[in-house]
Write a structure and sequence with these properties.
Elements (H helix, E strand, L loop, with lengths): L19 H10 L23 H16 L9 H8 L3 H7 L3 H12 L12 H20 L1 H10 L3 H28 L9 H18 L9 H13 L5 H4 L1
Length: about 240
């Protein structure tokens, strides 16, 4: 059913489900805050219509439905997605600037949620992020649709650049920050390039999850990678090295 907050079509046309009087009522109530029981308005009305979580869910589900039906990413149009979701195109454009941004959110919705990190620990936070990379690898293996989406994304530079810039790059920055904290805490050597250290941790997990899709991804893989690397990266005589 069309979302009443966002039911207008592109170009400001109405779909015929609301009369002009109803639109004016929505403008007073939907844009101006909830009406009180006595018919008066709240003293400080909100500006703009609230975003509808149901509309956003319908749009994301519409993209997934079309992809499951065999539609390629390149063949999906905003108009087709809007029609499938039961919303107007303007509803989509209020939330996403274009298809690339929308498709990235679809992928995020399908992937496991990134776990929170402390932001204060070094190796402990690295372990959390490596484990997240492992679970995303498992998700891609178990979901044919997610696997196919990634394969299609990589053949569309604009879409892959959007995903890299808004998803991969922030994750990499979090990893680098954790490496710096580990170095500052004496958990890792301070005479190596931080980006090299980060690559040494992430590299083995990426090989297993991306380049070797048949390789095992055991539950303790993150711990094994960290344990193997720390023996060579920890300062001589440190607690980490002895461990």
């Amino acid at each position: 059913m069309r979302d009443q907050d966002d039911g207008e079509r592109d170009g400001g046309e109405h779909d015929g489900t609301l009369s002009g009087e109803q639109d004016r009522h929505d403008a007073c109530v939907g844009d101006g805050g909830a009406a009180r029981g006595d018919g008066a308005q709240d003293p400080e009305p909100r500006r703009g219509r609230p975003r509808s979580a149901a509309a956003e869910r319908a749009i994301l589900d519409a993209v997934i439905t079309l992809l499951e039906a065999g539609e390629p990413l390149a063949g999906l149009s905003i108009e087709r997605i809007a029609r499938t979701a039961g919303v107007g195109k303007a509803t989509i454009y209020r939330r996403w600037t274009g298809k690339e941004e929308l498709f990235v959110d679809v992928v995020r919705d399908m992937e496991p949620v990134d776990p929170p990190v402390s932001g204060t620990e070094g190796l402990a936070d690295l372990r959390v992020m490596l484990e997240s990379l492992r679970t995303r690898g498992l998700a891609q293996r178990s979901s044919v649709l997610l696997h196919n989406i990634f394969a299609q994304m990589k053949s569309h530079p604009k879409l892959w650049d959007e995903y890299s810039g808004t998803v991969i790059a922030p994750r990499r920055e979090l990893m680098l920050a954790a490496v710096r904290r580990a170095v500052a805490a004496g958990e890792l050597r301070d005479d190596l390039d931080v980006e090299l250290i980060d690559d040494l941790f992430v590299g083995p997990m990426l090989v297993r999850t991306v380049h070797r899709p048949d390789a095992p991804l055991p539950d303790d893989l993150a711990d094994r990678i960290i344990g193997a690397l720390v023996q060579g990266l920890a300062p001589a005589g440190s607690t980490a090295a002895r461990a």
